[in-house]
Design brief:
Length: 273
């Protein structure tokens, strides 16, 4: 038998042996898919990749084991990221008014960021009703305080003044704007708006949680804020604007009730896309 064939055969025997070994005894227990996505969410979050974290958490919405813990985290990330991209779009729009020569490039960036913001805002709005899946009481916060700074990055201020950034500065501005808005959203949701130190103390407690009313009001605030994406001077999609405003009003009402008895269905968002 040629050497290559012997190696293939040996590898096959070894894999069978390992499979049989894995099936015997307590060590045969393998992590479930939900365990994998929960672990992956923690890893990507620690690495600062909020988009992948949201992707992992989205797979856990409705999960029996992790669903109640995934919902608050997912909603904070998607709404916060959308807000960050809106901030970027607004600064580039402001810069376009000042930098007449580079106005087109600034407007292209603004349009791109609004598109990205819309995708995240729609994911947030379509799943905000998942708050109902969290048992009555406070909202669990099983993650560390997001990174970033509450102060606006200086790169954003320069862009708003019409100063075209180098690619490295543009990338840094994007990362910091998204981080900042996620951080501010978390601070508001735990009842510590703009107070990073207090929010860090709250989230650092064992079994950290956010008051349900504060969390609900923050979600309503983000829905109201992100409805502005669809105004006439931006994406000009009145159907979505109306849906976001309706959701914001409903979530505001339910946030004052114990447990949020009912949140409107958001299926109409898909029809509006």
């Amino acid at each position: 038998m040629p050497l290559t064939s012997r190696r293939i055969a040996a590898a096959a025997v070894l894999s069978v042996f390992l499979g049989l070994t894995a099936c015997s005894g307590p060590s045969s227990v393998r992590p479930s898919a939900s365990d994998f996505y929960w672990s992956a969410a923690k890893e990507t979050y620690a690495a600062g990749d909020y988009r992948k974290t949201a992707d992992h958490l989205e797979r856990l919405l409705g999960d029996e084991k992790y669903g109640a813990r995934a919902v608050p985290w997912y909603l904070l990330l998607t709404s916060g990221m959308a807000g960050g991209y809106m901030d970027l779009a607004d600064r580039y729009t402001a810069g376009a008014r000042i930098n007449k020569a580079g106005a087109l490039a600034f407007r292209v960036k603004a349009a791109d960021y609004r598109t990205q913001a819309s995708k995240l805002a729609l994911r947030f709005a379509q799943n905000v009703e998942q708050i109902r899946a969290v048992p009555l009481g406070s909202m669990p916060l099983e993650f560390s305080l997001p990174g970033g700074n509450a102060a606006e990055p200086p790169q954003l201020a320069k862009i708003a003044r019409g100063i075209a950034p180098e690619q490295a500065d543009a990338d840094a501005a994007e990362a910091m704007a998204v981080q900042r808005r996620v951080l501010l959203t978390v601070c508001e949701a735990v009842g510590a708006p703009n107070d990073v130190a207090k929010a860090e103390e709250i989230i650092g407690r064992p079994h950290a949680s956010a008051p349900r009313a504060a969390f609900g009001k923050t979600m309503a605030h983000m829905l109201e804020l992100e409805s502005g994406l669809y105004s006439r001077d931006k994406l000009d999609q009145p159907d979505k604007l109306a849906i976001f405003k309706e959701l914001a009003q409903t979530v505001t009402t339910e946030a004052t009730r114990a447990g949020g008895a009912r949140i409107v269905q958001t299926g109409s968002l898909a029809a509006a896309q």
